[in-house]
């Protein structure tokens, strides 16, 4: 069977890996301890671009928000770079923490509506040449 295939994050450090079953992965952002501004993905530099204080620290996001905008892409972009399923939906989510991030959506794309409550899930993006699953954060209707 294919149980030797691995799930590989599209990029390390975007979300937490749950240490026990029942725990959900959480997106990791940066929060400024001075002005409260939150950034995602997290900043590698420690200076807040909002208030210029050196007070950024990692913060785990709730994973919940509302769809701000989205578009459904019916055809794969030219060039063969994109290897995921088509159609796919891509757009912006306003998180509960008052930060906006861009994401793929998963689930029934016909159900997506602006203003809809959505939740972060880790889901398949594509397969690599060895058949491993490349996974990334996506948002699905709650
Ligand atoms: Zn700040």
Features of the shown structure:
single chain, 142 residues, mainly beta, OB fold (Dihydrolipoamide Acetyltransferase, E2P), 5-stranded mixed β-barrel, 3-stranded antiparallel β-sheet, 9 strands, 42% strand, globular, binds zinc ion
Number of helices: 0
The CATH architecture designation of the domain at 63-141 is Beta Barrel
Beta content: 35-45%
The CATH topology of the domain at 63-141 turns out to be: OB fold (Dihydrolipoamide Acetyltransferase, E2P)
Which class of the domain at 63-141 in CATH terms? Mainly Beta
- Determine the structural class based on helices, strands and strand pairing: mainly beta
**Would you tell me the overall average pLDDT?**
91
Termini separation (Å)? 32 Å
Segments where pLDDT lies below 50 for 5+ residues? Answer: none
Q: Give the bound compounds.
A: zinc ion
How are the elements arranged and paired?
Elements: E1 7-9, E2 28-32, E3 38-39, E4 56-60, E5 64-73, E6 88-95, E7 100-105, E8 117-127, E9 133-141
Parallel strand pairs: 1-9, 7-9
Antiparallel strand pairs: 2-3, 2-4, 5-6, 5-8, 6-7, 8-9
Walk me through the structure.
It is a single chain. By secondary structure, the protein is mainly beta. It starts with 6 loop residues before the first strand and ends with a strand. The chain contains no helices and nine strands. A hairpin with a 4-residue loop joins strand 6 and strand 7 (100-105). It has strands at 7-9, 28-32, 38-39, 56-60, 64-73, 88-95, 100-105, 117-127, 133-141. The chain has a domain at 63-141: OB fold (Dihydrolipoamide Acetyltransferase, E2P) (Beta Barrel), CATH 2.40.50. Zinc ion is lined by residues 32, 34-35, 37, 48, 50-51, 53.
């Amino acid at each position: 069977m294919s149980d030797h295939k691995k799930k590989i994050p599209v990029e390390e450090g975007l979300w937490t890996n749950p240490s026990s079953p029942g725990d959900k992965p959480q997106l990791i952002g940066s929060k400024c301890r001075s002005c409260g501004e939150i950034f995602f993905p997290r900043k590698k530099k420690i200076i807040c671009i909002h208030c210029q204080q050196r007070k950024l620290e990692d913060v785990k996001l709730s994973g919940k928000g509302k769809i701000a905008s989205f578009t459904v892409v019916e055809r794969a972009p030219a060039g063969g770079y994109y290897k995921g399923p088509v159609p796919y939906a891509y757009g912006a989510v306003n998180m509960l923490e008052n930060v906006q991030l861009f994401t793929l959506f998963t689930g029934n794309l016909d159900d997506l509506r602006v203003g809809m409550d959505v939740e972060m899930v880790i889901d398949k993006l594509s397969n690599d040449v060895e058949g491993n699953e490349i996974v990334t954060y996506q948002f699905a209707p709650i």
